[in-house]
User: Fold this.
Amino acid sequence: MASPPVLKPRRPPLPWYLVVPAVMCGLGVAGPMAYLVVRALSIESDELRRILLDPRNLALLGNTLLLCLGVLVVTLILALPAAWLTARTDLPMRRVFALGMVLPLAVPGYLMAFSLLSLGGYVGAVAKVTGLVMDEPIRIAPIRGFWGALIALSLYNFPYMLLNLRAAFLSLDPTLEEVGRSLGRTPARVFVSLVLPQLRPALVAGGLLVGLHVVADFGVVHLMGYHTFSFALYERYSAVDVPGMAWFGLMMIALAGAMIALELWLLRGLRLHRVGSGVARGRAVSRLGWWKAPAVLFLLSILCAGVVMPTATTVFWLFEPTFASAGQLRDKLTDAVGDSVTAAALASTVAVLLALPVALLASRYPSKRALSLERLAYMGYATPALAFALGLLVVSISVDRLLVRSGETWFYQSLAVLVYGYALHFMAEAVGPIRAALFHATPRLEEASRALGHGFVRTSWSVTLPLLRPGLLVSLALVFLSVMKELPLTMLLRPTGFTNLAYELWDRTNERLYADAAPFALGILVVSFVFVGALLVGESALERKKQ
Amino acid sequence: MPHLLCVEDLTRTFPGQNRPVIEGVSFCVEAGEVLAVIGPSGCGKTTTLRTLMGFERAERGRVSKGDMVCADCATGLHLPPEKRGIGIVFQDYALFPHMSVLRNVMFGIPSRPVTPQGEAGPKLSAKRRRQIAREALWMVGLMGVDDRAVQDLSGGQQQRVAIARALAPGTKVVLLDEPFSNLDPDLRQATRAEVRTLAKRAGLGVVLVTHDQEEALSLADRICVMRDGVICQAGRPEAVYAHPRTAFVARFLGQTNLLPATASGTDVAQTPLGKMQLHKPCDGEVLLSIRPEDLSLAPVTSGDNAGQAHMVGKVVAREFKGHDLTYRVRVADREVAVQVEAGAMFQVGHAVQVAPIRPAVVVTNDL
Assistant:
């Protein structure tokens, strides 16, 4: 009886105290969405016809899909070689590059858009800098529209694809490739016929993440003036057209749903685990030789575009004259930091508390039912933030109408609803690290403690919790960071007077007040780099401990 | 004097399954005794331990430790694991990775131990608890590793820490779940001997769960052979080995030859190998088990085949194992294994006579 849980199909009943919170998470997302459907359907038929049969819808769909496709292609072209270089070659400073390639995650899309927009044009950064040393400053055309959105979203989303592909490259069994070579195939054909098919799950998973992000993106497309569903939804929001908003929200959800369905279809019946006994051998290393220099140059240019360029433009604009006074900006900056720290602290705590039962269910009771409950946690993440925010907005207005005398509000524009939105949207980010920590805190350890005479409370306190602590901290940090940078939920749900760095940056960039936007961009960059750096350092410390 | 640990009629069915994982499991352990529960993978051994500990809830049966009842389904009593005072050493040891060796062992030592009368005793100082933990580590032969991280210990050392941790609270009953399977053969031998000495010296009752028949036979005072959740036979290792009740038990404990036979009310039966002595009289078609070492080989003396009591066969394979030799002999369309001491030299192809030297055992056919 080497490992009893595997040998026997053991199905203990799922404990209610874990199921109830998990189901609540699902309902918390599904509820507002269902209400959105109700609101969308409750309009006059001729108005429905006006919204649905608007010929612009097809153009919006086409634009959205085109942008998705474009970003997928660009991220793939960047991530596939980058993943291979950092996983399977003798690239110099391989580990440093592997960590560095994750850094663009710290630069949100709208910040990238701010940076790209502020480069070109008559008063752009390029013109200003070159004007200092040349008589005739170089003026590049402003980067905007489709190409602007494509570049900004690709640079921001590239790490998601890279992380998936790199993990897949690292887990590939090099023996299979050696067998391919021994059967007379060239390295190139081995790559196409053996390696690529094995990368498929990673490609699909990375592609889904990127696709969902592009569909849900609001900041970039709006700043770049590229018309997608989320752009149209915001237009309806500005025009206070609730049914119109609801329909565009539903279209975004339908598109996200279609992507998830496509992923499931692409991965159906896939089995790629090792066949036969034996342990997979270590990493295979390809020698780059003379290709080392171009490879390093390639990775450096990704880093330049994804990290150095936005940082440099931010710093440049810091020293340009601003429209608002320095005092005004300082006050606004203090407000934004204070507000977003409060909201992020609340939301990350709630998200971790919600994620804990979900992670426990998925790791301790691995059954189909438990896994489908875990999926519920991802619903909030997969639902485009703008549509989710809209659902919450509509629900909170209606609830207020039911409960409160007219003129007063309890839920509409309340911090509670904003935190609720953040927590449910980012909860999925909290599940992963907790699950990983639970993997080390096996139930066997809890049983050992029980056998030694300690009850449930004492066991949880002195065995389970200390083992979970690193995972909980990482979860808290991830959600905290995400909330600090969040834009669409903040925009629709923020209480009057509430502001955060993302909103202020977006607002000023929208007005083309780049110098005024720069302090807020700098704030986001500092917070992000500190967090991402801390996470990377912590993670590599954990890795070392494991070895 | 009550038994140290007694399990009666323990039965457990997992939800969603219609067959019980264990059914009617009963055994008792005395102080200073090692009891081995042995059976193939998935037979319910580990579930027995987990039910006994209280990690799983039985639907029928009773568990008692001395005069304390730990679980009794008739009255609905189910003490949680921490109230039972039974130590357990898991297969993977389950050492707390965030604590030092000494901290691990101290973990179970109560700061206010309960007296045998069930009252709270005097408070133990941290210093005293450390001392108890050190004594437990000393008992299993581990010294000078107090402050080491458990990850830095070898497999054998980790196992000793796990045993020390189980014993440190003053536990008299220890359950071992396949505890030697992660050790290399040399270490396994030594640790087995130590566990046995420890049980005798400290008067512990040890329940050992294993699928390794050699381990059970060499270590245990008593063995229970388990199959499909039911104990098929229990007794001293020698007795169970010599007189298996069923064909499964005979096969599972060592090698055996199973032969169909016809008996007629006496203690002699007709078998494919000729007439054979039985360990007890019986009647009709029966199944016999005879161990390879209970058969002997002799050269065929030329000339007289008629009236020969034993059949002539041909050696088809030989396996030299140092102190003994196992021949596989083809007799009357079946192959039998015969184990002889090295020296008797037959080659493959030789004609030989197979004769029993001890009576065969009549077993129930449950294969």
About this structure: The first strand of chain B starts at residue 5 and ends at 12. Chain B touches chain A through 41 residues (CB under 8 Å).
